[in-house]
Automatic annotation (TrEMBL):
Pfam family, one: Tetraspanin
TM region(s), chain numbering: 27-48, 68-90, 102-126, 133-154, 243-267
InterPro entries with a match to the protein in the record: Tetraspanin/Peripherin, Tetraspanin_EC2_sf
The protein's name in its UniProt record: Tetraspanin
Keywords: Membrane, Transmembrane, Transmembrane helix
UniProt-listed PANTHER family: RE08073P-RELATED, TETRASPANIN
Cell compartments where the protein resides: Membrane
Source organism: Glossina brevipalpis
Length: 282
């Protein structure tokens, strides 16, 4: 019985098209990212509660942890800014805008906001300033909500092919290719692909397959010919970049959640210390 079920499952998987398999892999990858975010947050909350129940965290300990976390936030925000610059540079080289400029601009803005917030939180923790921490924690909460929305949008955009903009962009490129050969040469060289869908695109319009469709522009051997279409290759490239963004974004969210909890706890500690100090004078 088990062998029959196994054969049925393998048969079903083998019948999937390449696009369906790619979508399945993307969904699996995004699921792993979300599981890591949720489990990391839960583990921290459990450990934090146990630690608090046993001995409690002192203001100095919280301060040092916050300083470390904000330093890590600065580092990750710089990675995010570098990633967005890479997207903008890549988008500038493309002949058709597939949404890279909008995505790059949004990510670089997020990176700068996180960097400024991390610096502000570092200073607030260093000076043990209750007023600054009261500003810092709500900003972190808003950042967490914004990043969760952006991660969800990135996941949905990857599955939907950025709402058809990729298909539209490559349709425009193919129209240009028909009128003036060479419109796809940049993508064929960059992504090691041929045509929009495959090599049959050129055969259908009775055009000679360009040298950019071959490894090192050597088309004398059939094995040098790229078989994959440029649209599928570009979607794969985009999915990889969005997954990298979500991993960095997920780490940022986990650290921001922990920082917000510790920031709130440090505010409570500072309030209690202030009350005890005033009580001594009464």
């Amino acid at each position: 019985m088990k062998s029959e079920i196994s054969r049925t499952v393998h048969g079903t998987v083998n019948k999937l098209t390449l696009d369906e398999k790619g979508t399945l892999q993307n969904i699996t990858a995004w699921s792993v990212v979300w599981i890591i975010i949720c489990r990391s947050t839960i583990v921290f909350c459990v450990l934090f509660r146990k630690k608090k129940d046993k001995m409690g965290l002192g203001t100095t300990t919280i301060k040092h942890i916050l300083l470390l976390l904000n330093f890590v936030l600065m580092f990750l925000s710089l990675i995010l800014i570098g990633f967005s610059v890479f997207i903008l540079v890549s988008g500038a080289a493309n002949q058709v805008d597939h949404g890279e400029n909008a995505a790059g601009g949004l990510i670089i803005t997020l990176g700068i906001v996180i960097l400024v917030t991390a610096i502000f939180g570092f200073v607030a923790a260093l000076r043990e300033s209750k007023r600054k921490l009261i500003i810092y924690v709500p900003i972190l909460v808003m950042l967490i909500l914004t990043q969760l929305v952006m991660t969800s949008m990135a996941s949905q955009g990857t599955r939907d092919g950025l709402s058809g903009s990729i298909r539209q962009g490559f349709d425009e490129l193919w129209s240009s290719e028909i009128q003036a050969p060479g419109a796809l040469s940049y993508y064929e060289d960059w992504l090691h692909c041929c045509g929009v869908n495959n090599t049959e695109d050129y055969r259908r319009i009775k055009h000679e397959i360009p040298k950019t469709c071959c490894h090192k522009h050597n088309c004398s051997q059939i094995e040098n010919l790229y078989q994959d279409g440029c649209m599928a290759k570009f979607e794969e490239y985009l999915a990889d970049k969005m997954l990298a963004f979500s991993i960095v974004n997920g780490l940022l969210i986990v650290i921001e959640v922990i920082s917000a909890v510790l920031g709130w706890l440090m505010i409570s500690k500072l309030k209690n210390e202030y009350r005890r100090t005033n009580a001594r004078w009464l």
